[in-house]
Amino acid sequence: MCIRDSISGGGSALFELPADGISLDDLRSVTRHLLRCGAPIDDINCVRKELSQVKGGKLAQLLCPARVEALIISDVVGDRLDLIASGPLIQNLTNARDALSVLEKHQLLDKVPSNVLQQLKSLSSPPSEGIFQDVQAKILASIGTCISTMERLCQNIGLETLVLTTSLEGEARECAKFLASVVKEVVGKDRPAKKPCALLLGGETTVTVKGNGKGGRNSEFALSLFRSLLPLAGKCHLDFACIATDGDDGETQSGGIIVHDQEFRQIASKENILIDINRSLENNDSFSWFLQQGIKPFQCETKTNVMDFVIVVSYTHLRAHETGRNLVCRLLLEKKK
Prior knowledge:
Blueprint: E1 2-7, H1 11-14, H2 24-36, H3 41-50, H4 58-63, E2 67-73, H5 96-105, H6 114-121, E3 135-141, H7 143-156, E4 160-168, H8 172-189, E5 197-203, H9 217-229, E6 237-244, E7 256-259, H10 261-268, H11 273-282, H12 286-292, E8 308-315, H13 324-336
Helix pairs in contact: 2-3, 3-5, 8-9, 9-11, 9-12
């Protein structure tokens, strides 16, 4: 018997059978703590796999001896099969000790439910390696395919296009600072790309939540990028967008943020704008800040998660035929077909 299984980003949250003694509320609590402290997806899924009866290759154990074909859409940096949807059909490369180390690293041992710690300390045996011999896995789409499509479309409208990375990770606001430094180099010295050009990045950043504001990783990236690019306002034309490919940027009920050149110039000229931005970033309130400035969040639910992308378009003259906002809309709509 052959079973064909489709696995995509979001599978960790949508497909679950908790380990004995673990409730869904326990899992939600652990996940919430890990997200708020800025833990990367590798760490989150390391813990999830040890608290489940289907993750970490355990679904393959339940399906054995059937032959299984896994068709996968990747939402993790590096396309590691054991991390996508927490690897229900893939041999687990981490264990309960690793999960405990993750909680210790993020100072969560005294915050997660006590039965979670008990489960991790029980050191249950992983599925036998032999059961994975009849599992074949194929990646159908990833951030790499998304960025490649965007690269082609940007080139088709005459933009020199530079892919900076498809493995973007780290604190959102810090990653944005690095990107801003590249944009400044482009604007001032036409390197590493010559205007008009598009800079593309793909991956998934994190946010260490310290305030009580409203904002996802893409809106925080966008606001930090906005702040770092303030010195360029009026010196060139810039469009930029920070987008979740599935249209879900954290708790914002939006897909991210798109800032057009005219919006950037007008907002940058406001009095005390830097103070306002700093205050919003300190409170992790980036989403609210953009709304207050009249920038509506980007809405496009694709239901396909291959992480996030960032695009910055720099040009020396206005392009009536294409703006940053409708360019990104078209890229996403083509991806959705």
